[in-house]
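Could you please review the protein record set out just below?
***
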Amino acid sequence: FFNDTATTEIYTQAFVGSVRCVQETGINAEYMGFLNDLGLCYFEWGKFDQAIEQYDKVIKLELKDTTLNAYPHFYRGLALFGKGDLIRAKESLLYAKKQFDEAKKQFEGKKEIDQLKLVIASILINICRIDLKNEDYVHVKDELDKAKNIYLSLIHISEPTRPERISYAVFCLKKK
């Protein structure tokens, strides 16, 4: 991402156009995606307050889809963490985890389940980062073990795209 006025202006114009489109059509899906992407840009630029503002707008849409509702809470938690607001970051991440856990049930046996598991593992790791910053070590090991087990469950030895890395990862795990 580029941190310059021209890029910001393009996103501002796109935002105004998106708002107009939503107002005229009542379609929220494109608007939600745009706000998430705009939040990501602000996050990458280190503008955490603006990122949080975009995610809050998505959250206010009160989407019925559990997965779509969980992502802005996840991203909001990361932005709050970046800003240093650890209490609200953890609350947002815990809410996202709860939503993703619910969504996991509906995706069991489908290809999207691996993506959900990755996000849940990432949430667990980020919650541990918050706990470590707060010097709250009580649950860190258990949560990291849960995240590790999720990652390990996603290693498909038969996957042909990365056989060397997977074989090496399995070797390292067996070695320990």
Q: What stands out?
A: DSSP finds eight helices and no strands in the chain. The longest helix spans residues 86-107.
